[in-house]
Amino acid sequence: MAIAQRMGLLFAPLSLFALDTPVGVLNHHFELFHYTINALEDTTQNDSYATALGGFVAYRSKPLWGWGMAYKHYFSHLILDAKNPCKTALCDEAGNDINPLAQLYLYYQNASFEIRLGKQQLDTPLLNNDTTRLIPYSYEGLSAIVNLNPQTKLSIGHIDRFRTNISQDYTRNSASGYAREGVSYVGVEGVWDSANFQGYYYHAHGLYDALYTQLSAKTPYNSRLDWLYGVESISTFGGGENIDNRNNGGDDVRVISTKIGLGNERFSWIAAFSFNESSRQITHQKPFLWGM
């Protein structure tokens, strides 16, 4: 058991602008990130800390007849003294710096939808960025977002390869095992009055199927704060022969969680409760947050 302490510092003068050109937008971000893990055991040999300088440079072309491309390159370089830096996820498993190509995709868009092909970051409940470190997760495949109306969107995609936040390589090794035929998903997100809804279905042949639902809402408490509350559930089933880590899914996850709290656009106080009636858990999951 350990307590983790995170400190992130943003060099604002290096990250305050995006260069908007006639052919595209060039963006960047630089951050000094320190992470400390203090073990609670009697020995300190499991204590870990590291400091890294990192960030990204990104470019997205403006569409020409609807077509365009995007590029995003991250980096995380260890600086200063470090102890067990691999445990902080600020470097790879060998203790080396990480410089992954997170996005390199071709896109087509119009007023109703956008489709992407190539390396990309995703923002779905179970396939997502996970931005708890300098380097996020990214994926390789085909994805599309269709705007059904101003309040509702449909997400659909097929992911062929995966890259973790401590690697530069895209492989078919997912968090639960070898995804020989990738992962397909379909989901819908909507806003109705003060309520948000998400529903996603994932299919990984030879691994498992997963169903995710979330309903969040808010009502006024006073002129400055709102009540925030919601419920979400995750179920996995149909476990296949390729599962090698049942703590990240498998066929035995049935989680229900609820939240209630107060907040506004700048901050919030949230109490969350979860119940897992199975013996497994999912460790790579988008946090239960208010909003879309």
Q: What this model shows, in words?
A:
It is a single chain. The protein has 292 residues and is an all-beta fold. The protein is built from no helices and 15 strands. It has strands spanning 2-10, 19-20, 24-39, 48-61, 67-83, 101-109, 113-120, 138-149, 152-163, 183-192, 195-204, 208-220, 226-237, 253-263, 268-276. The protein is globular. The two termini are 32 Å apart.
Short description:
The chain is mainly beta. It has strands at 2-10, 19-20, 24-39, 48-61, 67-83, 101-109, 113-120, 138-149, 152-163, 183-192, 195-204, 208-220, 226-237, 253-263, 268-276. The protein has no helices and 15 strands.
Strand residues, percent: over 45%
Largest sheet: 15 strands, antiparallel
Given the C-alpha coordinates, what overall shape results?
Answer: globular
Helix proportion range: under 10%
Radius of gyration: 20 Å
Topology:
Elements (H helix, E strand, L loop, with lengths): L1 E9 L8 E2 L3 E16 L8 E14 L5 E17 L17 E9 L3 E8 L17 E12 L2 E12 L19 E10 L2 E10 L3 E13 L5 E12 L15 E11 L4 E9 L16
Antiparallel strand pairs: 1-3, 2-3, 3-4, 4-5, 5-6, 6-7, 7-8, 8-9, 9-10, 10-11, 11-12, 12-13, 13-14, 14-15
Descriptors for this entry?
mainly beta; disordered N terminus; 292 residues; 15-stranded antiparallel sheet; 56% strand; 15 strands; globular; disordered C terminus
